[in-house]
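Go through this:
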Amino acid sequence: MDQQSAQDGGASEREHFISVRKIDVLDALIDHGGLDAPSDREKFRQFCRLLGAIYHYEYHDQLERLHDDYFYFDPDSTGHARADAATIQRVYPDLIGALIEVLHDANFVEVSREEIERSHREDTIVRIKIHAPVENYRDVRFFRRGHHRETVLIDAWYGLRRREAEFKVYDDVVMLVTVKENVPASTGGKKSPRPSKLRPGAVLLKYFRNIASADLNALFPDVRVVMSWRDQLVLGVPALIGGVPILIKLASTVTVLFLIAGFYLGYAGTVRDEEWAGALAAISGLAALGGFAVTQGMKFQRQTLIHQKALSDNVYYRNVNNNAGIFDTLIGEAEEQECKEAFLAYYFLLEPNGIDTHDALDRHVEAWLKQTFGTDVDFESNHALEKLERHGLLTRDGERLAVLPLDQALLRLDRVWNDFFPRAAKP
């Protein structure tokens, strides 16, 4: 996938993500017919199980390292209090680098700044105006995987009409936010930023499903709803129309209140009956103005709560996992993707079909996935071939690729597994 298509994020973009289940890929490969003998099909199943176990062990080690590094940055942990500044500075790049590596293995793609800025200019599904205190964050990054188009009904003309709108929706989104250690009290004379609810220096991780590309800004932590100019007009114009007559009436009677106040303070001698009546009218007008102000304030708060609920519903029901729990989810998905890629690469290099180059393998696997499952995948075998080669299952002769036969491959994987536990392997 070229860089331009990755940034454009169009509907025709092809991704590396293989959405088919691992067991379905394995069953389809065995039914494909490249392995005629039942014994060979069983050996291939055994090969896949053993290779999957090796990947699982390797990723388990990576999972442990992620949990160890994240201990200092977990918003719910007190690990930061036990570490000095040098440890924090050393561990942070290791954590971010390891996390991005796992995301890459799981076939996530980082959302570019251009794509985020372009999406925020589009119509959104969540029809509210929000503000995120980005000045409180040291780093904000989004990673996406898979996408589709959805058509939804959008309210128009303040709910009087509804229209259809099509949105690009990301199947999976991972957000990484690092909170600044020290948020400045002011920025260039501007209003001081609102303090974050998150611990300074914490790294917030969130995993979402089915998020519209234009709604990425709704995922930020500490995001708050603000009133749009339309809402301000809807609430402000009636308030102005209803409040002006009350103020006009008060203007003609409020002076009487000063006369009454002067009488009680000894500055005025007498108060006429009509002045008492005017004072009572002024007090009634002030009470009416106060009640009107309270009513308008409650309308404003109600509208804000409606918007906040729409925002919460959009985020809450799409949240899959958070913080340290994300590692287990991502490791499992990375392991799943790596296994499928390795199964496909090994099988079609083993099968007597004349495929022995990287480009030919990619084209053949893409065509097979399209024909078998109807998925249009940009198959990228580089990572799978590197791991097969590292475990001694693949040899290269220039651009020519070859894999070990099943019997030799099983023996080789058995040695790789035993090397994980050298003491236990000895009698």
User: Anything to note?
Assistant: The chain is about 55% helix and 15% strand.
